[in-house]
Amino acid sequence: MQGFAGKVAVVTGAGSGIGRALAIELARSGAKLAISDVDVDGLAETEQQVKALGAAVKSDRLDVTEREAFLAYADAVAEHFGKVNQIYNNAGIAFSGDIEVSQFKDIERVMDVDYWGVVNGTKAFLPHLIASGDGHVVNISSVFGLFSVPGQAAYNSAKFAVRGFTEALRQEMILAGRPVGVTTVHPGGIKTAIARNATAAEGLDRDELARTFDKQMARTSPQRAAEIILDAVRKNKARVLVGGDAKVLDILVRLTGSGYQQLFSPVMRRMLPPTR
Ligand SMILES: NC(=O)c1ccc[n+]([C@@H]2O[C@H](COP(=O)([O-])OP(=O)(O)OC[C@H]3O[C@@H](n4cnc5c(N)ncnc54)[C@H](O)[C@@H]3O)[C@@H](O)[C@H]2O)c1
């Protein structure tokens, strides 16, 4: 992947946060865009901003958990632009709650969006990316795909799974000689609506959880996150950590092995409102 001018890039969850910032940075870099979201109002706002930058844009409501719709969407994007070079599987949701107080459906919902959404997007677009001769898959995991914390088991499971899936894909593309780069993204706390959009187990204080995230954890702007991600795509990096917090936490986890659990859990318990 040399640059972005003339490339066709697909961004899911483009109606807010990192997805919107990615769409804007890609537009600034000369890419053509296929943007989608379940939030049509947020998506329309992104579409307007991207168009104002002069980018060609196709904008569609797409729920990443709907596999058949995703497969049809991939063909429609390829037909519309004549090719597809990149997919940013970015759409995601968060949920707080200890395992004891979480329902099966809560955990399944997070897996459906955050993991199966990524699998659906990757599988739907991979044939088109290969056919382009210059493709890239960018899957958004999290620092929570590098280590676990109490109260985030569903999100941790999905983000670890995204990492496992994407790291295997990268090796497969290399071994098969496919012209497709693959990057796993691990953001730390990014200033987006993720915590405000999140759900929580019954009885937990959602607003307090969101306020704590916004005040104490969200550090990097979405625009900066997008710049870091696009730089990693240009360099075809296997893994990119977004934010100083992500870098420090990654080092701590690698230095301590499973010992990080003893270090992190009391800190998380002090920082976060109750998650049980
Ligand atoms: N904000 C952070 O601190 C942070 C940290 C690590 C990873 N991430 C990841 O970054 C990605 C983007 O999150 P964000 O922080 O920009 O959050 P956000 O809530 O601002 O944006 C997420 C977007 O995804 C959309 N979405 C949700 N469910 C969807 C579905 N089923 N189909 C299509 N679109 C859907 C939402 O409508 C929203 O527009 C997510 O995968 C998230 O897990 C965020």
UniProtKB/TrEMBL annotation:
It is an enzyme of class 1 (oxidoreductase). The keyword Manganese does not apply. Its EC number is 1.-.-.-. Residues 7-193 form the Ketoreductase domain. Keywords: Oxidoreductase. Gene3D superfamilies: NAD(P)-binding Rossmann-like Domain. SMART domains: PKS_KR (SM00822). It comes from the Bacteria. InterPro entries: KR_dom, NAD(P)-bd_dom_sf, Sc_DH/Rdtase_CS, SDR_fam. The keyword Oxidoreductase applies. GO terms for molecular function: oxidoreductase activity. It comes from Mycobacterium servetii. This is SDR family NAD(P)-dependent oxidoreductase. Belongs to the short-chain dehydrogenases/reductases (SDR) family.
